[in-house]
Design a protein that fits this description.
The structure holds two protein chains of two kinds. Chain A is α/β, with parallel strands linked by helices. Chain A has 17 helices and twelve strands. In chain A, α6 runs parallel beside α12 and α7 packs across α8. In chain B, the strands form five sheets. Chain B has a seven-stranded mixed sheet with strand order 2-10-9-8-7-3-4, with helices on both faces. In chain B, strands 13-14-17-16 form a four-stranded antiparallel sheet. Classes of the chains: A alpha/beta, B alpha/beta. Chains A and B meet through α2, α3, α4, α5 and α6 of A and α1, α2, α3, α4 and α5 of B.
């Protein structure tokens, strides 16, 4: 089948150099479905080869009692190695990625992931170490974790950290349990946690799992926490507040000092959601703003690859008064005066307990350590500067194309709105997102934060070039112009076309649930 | 300064001027001056990649790695199974590695279909109808299973077998402080759960048991199912996906929710992560499922397509009423497991399970022939078993490292009653007879 998706982008020399940031090539061989591996399966075909061991081949009926044995093998797929490689390679061709093109997905910090960090994670001396290896045989690993913890504490301005949480949400819940343990130690656990209305959904979900009631405070007309509204809900039953700063509108909470004072005045703690830390690396630290608990998303700020949805890593750093409550065992540098080990494990005195089966997503942590060391203090500061510069350049460049609900300097991301476009053409933020896919870019985050109508949340990150930003801006302009042209609304509603599949029927997926091949 | 940002000095100047500013610093005017870091971060300046690589290689060489330095007999939830070149190559394709959560299905069919295949494979292995798209690790999957079961039944109590991995039980206890779940530990007798110890306990929301359990023993799941039928609790089974190649599936035994650690499906030992939390359940509870679920649908032209579905359960929509707070999961590990299971196929998974059981049987019989080494129990095992040593197990593990063996895991006091004499040994299909024989000789020397 011949490709049916020839593109007709106007040749524009200002964006010719955006090769690194734009992906317009659709799958090589057209838009046919890729069969599932179950449909590729043929009985008797195989790929596996196992080591020759010389171990006595005891019959299965002497090993496992009949009552516990399967009557027949689990039916998996039966394919050759060649089939396997073809299948997953074709699937990979149906997938957008940072390596392919720009990914301005707001709130997700989809920056380029340095390949060197992958090479670190593949070192046999890191990748092939069993997590139950005695400390004396894992000194390099424990030292690496201690080194990363120290660097993260320097970046956040905190006293100590746990590296166990496997993602941001796990970090949030860890932080809330630390909050609970601290208040219990003061004599009363308290019942409420305050969250701004613009917060990520994980915040309120974590609050519930932490055994707290979520109290929402509104944002003011400038997009920041309404200080008066906050003061009105603060009382001695408030355990703390969870804040993202810069917030999810990409705006710095200018009243952060007053917020911190107000919360501390009623004995509450401040929790920093590190989703947006990329904006302020080396500029300002959560610890200096008055935060007591900070989680970091290493898969955002520290460039560990996101893997199509994970793995992440969500370390939690705390101020001095909370150190004794941290999860354990913690990797520590030991006092080796008596010639013992230099590094080992210690469970903090009043530890809330374990958060992870082992020590956290260790190979993700190793990648983050490499990223920190390559950048250093100067490089991390430059990351923040260029991330904020890129976001503001795009905000300004697009200010005539979309509504700008908060027209002031943003941090690492900007939130625009398609309200006017929708009013004049019927084309919604979702349609704009789908059209952008056809233009060779990933879509921005849409309909978040919930406080902005028809929100388009754009986070270019520091690793995209000026040429890519210009190409992205021109793509947005073309989309908006075409929306107003004859038939534009329909074209937008039916987009995307030049993608491996067209607009996906999400409602049908929920209505006629097919969660496995066997449920078809 | 690292070379990952493309901006030239001229471009930075032009962009600043486009914004009507005089300097990059002005972008941060909203940050109160008193809070700003005057001298930058107190970290050394950045170093070139080769220098940093050399430092990380130094750290890596200070570890004793399995394969390179140690023959691995340790398990406890992390196993040294074969990972072929093809799994490593496909799982490291940057389209899978460097993509985000599939929020735009039209450009994420690769990850979505791979996860759909993963869900199908895990559902078949566990013997229940639905699997989610992954959770962080086995412990996290157990926590979510208990959350589901207690909410579905409307009771806070959990009967928790001591045969469940002690780290997972510790994680469950940590999170129970927030959820208020009451965990009732059920002791082991003869290596398997002594449910009769609970005669007078209040009916629970969940009964949790591992199959095989932490000591490698096969539990009587029919008895656990009967307990659930009597009390109205849900049966949560922590299974092992590799042993499942020869064992009856938890679903076949009547499990309502099945959880597990998926590391054995093609993931490196990696000092404990990133691993793969497996979570599956019967169709009855699909609307309580934690985390992402991929479903099949069609696109606008009627072609088969995949998309994350039943999204109304999730935190970004339901917020404080969501079934779970999980957002980022372990998708790349799920894709890797799908590739590994594709490589193993029907016959390969059964063969790995069988060969592991054969190796464990041979190793167990050789160890038990040593003077002073006693069986922990006579319950049947598959890949892992415990033995009682005449000396402290932690000391033996420490000593055998010097002989080139990771001898296993010393059982903690809750199992040994403070004697420290229990050693948990795992044998996979990768262990040769020569390695096992040498290990037995070294252990013999260490316990004498």
């Amino acid at each position: 089948m011949a490709p049916d998706h020839t593109t007709d982008h106007a040749t524009d020399h200002t964006t010719d150099g955006a090769a690194g940031g734009r992906a317009t090539s659709a799958p090589l061989l057209g838009r046919d479905e890729e069969p599932t591996i179950f449909e590729l399966s043929r009985p008797g075909r195989r790929s596996w080869q196992l080591r020759t061991t010389g171990v006595p081949e005891t019959p299965i009926d002497e090993l496992v009692p009949a009552a516990h044995r399967r009557s027949r093998p689990v039916p998996l797929a039966e394919v050759s190695e060649r089939d396997l490689v073809g299948h997953f390679t074709r699937l990979s061709a149906r997938q957008f990625s940072v390596d392919l093109g720009a990914y301005p997905l707001g709130s997700c910090t989809m920056k380029y992931n340095p390949k060197m960090c992958d090479a670190v994670a593949a070192l046999p001396g890191l990748a092939d170490v069993h997590p139950a290896t005695p400390a004396k045989a894992a000194q390099g690993w424990i030292e690496a974790l201690v080194e990363l913890e120290a660097a993260l504490c320097t970046v956040t301005g905190m006293a100590a950290a746990t590296l166990q949480p496997a993602a941001g949400a796990a970090g949030e819940l860890t932080g809330l349990l630390l909050m609970r343990a601290w208040h219990e130690a003061q004599g009363a656990p308290r019942r409420k946690v305050v969250i701004p209305d613009s917060a990520h959904g994980t915040n309120p979900a974590s609050v519930t799992l932490g055994g707290y009631e979520a109290i929402t405070v509104p944002s003011d007309e400038r997009g920041c926490v309404d200080l008066d509204a906050l003061r009105a809900v603060l009382d001695e039953d408030v355990a703390g507040i969870m804040l993202t700063n810069p917030n999810t509108l990409g705006l710095f909470e200018e009243d952060i000092v007053a917020i911190a004072e107000a919360v501390h005045d009623v004995g509450g703690l401040l929790y920093y959601d590190g989703a947006n830390l990329n904006a302020i690396l080396g500029v300002v630290r959560p610890g200096d703003m008055g935060f007591d608990i900070v989680h970091l998303n290493l898969h955002k700020t520290f460039a560990t690859p996101h893997g199509g949805g994970g793995p992440g890593a969500g370390p939690v750093a705390v101020s001095e008064r909370l150190v004794a409550f941290l999860p354990g065992p913690r990797p520590v540098r030991l006092d080796d005066e008596d010639g013992g080990l230099a590094f080992g494990w210690v469970v903090p005195e009043r530890s809330i307990g374990r958060i992870h089966s082992w020590h956290g997503n260790a190979l993700v942590l190793a990648r983050a350590l490499a990223y920190v060391l390559v950048h250093g203090g100067d490089g991390l500061r430059q990351v923040a500067e260029l991330a904020v510069l890129n976001a503001n350049w795009l905000r300004t460049r697009l200010s005539a194309t979309f509504d700008v609900p908060f027209d002031r300097t943003c941090m690492h991301e900007c939130v625009l709105s398609a309200t006017s476009l929708k009013k004049s053409t019927g084309v919604r933020a979702l349609d704009v997102a789908k059209r952008l896919l056809e233009e060779g870019f990933h879509a921005p985050t849409v309909y978040f934060p919930l406080t902005v109508d028809e929100a388009l949340m754009i986070e270019p990150t520091e690793t995209e070039s000026l040429q890519t930003l210009e190409a992205l801006a021109q793509a947005f302009e073309r989309i908006v112009a075409d929306a107003a042209a004859p038939g534009g609304t329909e074209r937008a509603r039916e987009a995307p076309h030049a993608t491996p599949v067209g607009r996906v029927d999400e409602a049908r997926a929920a209505r006629h649930l097919v969660p496995t091949f066997d449920a078809r | 300064m690292a070379g990952y940002t493309p901006h030239t000095d001229d471009e930075i100047a032009a962009m600043v001027s486009f914004l009507g500013l005089d300097s990059v610093d002005e972008l941060f005017a909203a940050v109160p001056a008193a809070l700003r870091l005057a001298g930058g971060l107190d970290l050394p300046d950045g170093r070139p990649e080769p220098d940093v690589m050399a430092h990380l290689e130094d750290l890596a060489s200070a570890n004793r790695a399995c394969g390179r330095d140690l023959v691995c007999f340790a398990g406890g939830g992390a196993y040294d199974h074969e990972i072929p070149a093809v799994t490593r190559a496909l799982a490291s394709r940057s389209e899978f590695v460097t993509s985000y959560t599939p929020y735009q299905p039209e450009v994420a069919q690769g990850v979505l279909q791979a996860v759909f295949e993963f869900q199908t494979l895990i559902a078949r292995l566990s013997g229940v109808a639905v699997s989610n798209a992954s959770l962080y690790d086995g412990a996290a999957a157990l926590v979510e299973a208990v959350n589901l079961a207690t909410a579905a039944v409307g009771r806070d109590g959990v009967w928790l077998s001591a045969g469940v991995n002690p780290s997972w039980r510790a994680v469950l206890a940590t999170f129970a402080r927030g959820t208020g779940h009451r965990l009732v530990d059920v002791p082991l007798a003869g290596g398997v759960t002594a449910w009769e110890a609970l005669a007078d306990a209040e009916p629970p929301g969940a009964v949790v048991v591992a199959y095989p359990n932490y000591l490698g023993c096969l539990e009587d799941l029919a008895a656990a199912r009967a307990l659930c039928d009597e009390t109205g609790a849900l049966l949560v089974v922590a299974f092992d996906p590799v042993c499942s190649g020869i064992l009856r599936s938890p679903g076949d035994w009547g499990a309502d929710v099945v959880v597990g650690e998926g590391q054995a499906l093609g993931l490196p030992l990696g000092f404990g992560g990133p691993y793969l939390g497996l979570f599956s359940c019967t169709l009855e509870y699909v609307r309580r499922l934690p985390g992402r679920l991929v479903g099949e649908t069609v696109d606008i032209e009627g072609r088969r397509a995949y998309v994350t579905t039943l999204r109304a359960r999730e935190q970004d929509i339901r917020r404080e009423k969501a079934t779970s707070n999980v957002c980022t999961n372990q998708t790349l590990m799920a894709v890797t497991a799908a590739i590994q299971l594709g490589w193993l196929g029907t016959s390969g998974l059964a063969e790995v399970a069988l060969r592991s059981a054969q190796g464990a049987r041979y190793c167990q019989s050789q160890l038990l022939a040593l003077p002073g080494v006693e069986p922990w129990s006579d319950a049947p095992v598959v890949r892992e078993f415990a033995v009682r040593l005449p000396v402290e197990a932690a000391v033996v593990v420490d000593r055998l490292v010097d002989d080139g063996f990771l001898a296993g895991i010393a059982l903690d006091d809750t199992y040994t009653g403070g004697h420290g004499d229990g050693l948990l040994v795992a044998v996979t299909e990768r262990r040769t007879r020569a390695e096992i024989d040498a290990f037995v000789v070294a252990l013999d020397k260490a316990v004498r």
